[in-house]
């Protein structure tokens, strides 16, 4: 699973936009 797969999965499961999901993932791994 790469970052974009993770972003898409998080966005789908949480009803966030992909941009928001990317921010969340960046914050987690920062």
UniProtKB/TrEMBL annotation:
Annotated GO MF terms: DNA binding; structural constituent of chromatin
SUPFAM superfamilies from the UniProt entry: IHF-like DNA-binding proteins (SSF47729)
A Pfam entry, by short name: Bac_DNA_binding
Enzyme Commission number(s) from the entry: 3.1.-.-
Coiled coil feature spans: none
InterPro entries assigned: Hist_DNA-bd, IHF-like_DNA-bd_dom_sf
Top-level taxon of origin: Bacteria
Key words of the record: DNA-binding
Protein family per UniProt: Belongs to the bacterial histone-like protein family.
Protein name per Swiss-Prot or TrEMBL: Restriction endonuclease Aor13HI
Species of the source: Acidiphilium organovorum
